[in-house]
## 1
Amino acid sequence: MPSVLGLLEAREKKVREEVARLRAALGEAEAALERLVDARATVAEVLAEPSCAVAEPVGSAVAGSVVPHRAEGMEASVLAPDYQRIVSVLESEAGREGMRCQQLAAALGLEAVPAKVEGLRSKAKRLVERGWARQVRPGVFTALAAAAG
């Protein structure tokens, strides 16, 4: 039969372990709360500042960036690298008459599988919507200058 003192010591050890676990969880929760309070204070500061026009980012675009609407004097270098490659192929001699997305995929060195072709179609349509390319016939894309000339 276990002794009463032995039982009490075991119970005390178990409770101390529970207290240590709860202290660690409390420390993590307090750190998370502090980060949230700091974030809220930073957002409040930013929103309290007088609004100013957002400047266009300087430098080249990165993959995954938004395709800007083309304005007079804009160069293709503001586009993300994937879009720059598409525009350069459409501006090439092969793209002057217009290219289907399967042809575009081949010119870009991609497999002409449905997933790649549909991805290119989406990007080409986005370039058309934003004024960087033209769709001369359904599914046929060309560079802006080639279609105008």
Note: The first helix runs from residue 4 to 48.
## 2
Amino acid sequence: MKSIIIASTSTLHEGSYLEYLLPTLKEHFKNCKSILFIPFARPGGISHNEYTEKAAYAFATINISVKGIHEFENSAEAIKNAEGIFTGGGNTFLLVTQLYKHNVMQLLSETVKNGTPYLGTSAGSNICGLSMQTTNDMPIVYPPSFQTLGLIPFNLNPHYLDPDLQSKHMGETRETRIKEFHAFNAIPVLGLREGNWLDVKGDKITLRGSLTARLFKQNQDPTELETESDLSFLK
């Protein structure tokens, strides 16, 4: 049975890395002594080793060890043998490119669907949808495909921001960008605000956190979904 946490962000304002999620992660990874970390989304400024150390520091507080996928000679075997998997944030275009480069996109999808517990934050959440086309990230590299893990039957927009009515900025809002996506695509899109996450158990998808999430569907007005809402109806 699928067991997935899909979080908008890894870090809340004035909080430490993964701090707000740790009680949830302790339960989520309760059967794991160690997890595999995928640091491929970071484009620079922090190495894969440094990024993995950051994740390891957070998970050490709940007595779980972490090893980066880059530390293994065979990425596919690392995924197959993982007790749990965490894909961190960064740039979604880079993450998707690297997963295809290492030929593990399909394998990662199958592994999680077969029950290996998974955590995604930011870019690691973006790839849980049907495609990465509703990311906020710049296309700094060109992936061979926009198709991603397909762990849920819709797309995500992590870090979703509502329009600031006091702002004089006249550029496009997140809502505008998602509507542009829906001019050509029928896939529903869920705008996940900071501090929200999806709890996926089998086919049941539950919205968690303290805020509402904004649901966009083609040719329909967006709607607000209350926390604890069941999103399993989305197809």
Note: Helices lie at 22-28, 48-60, 75-81, 92-101, 105-113, 123-126, 174-182.
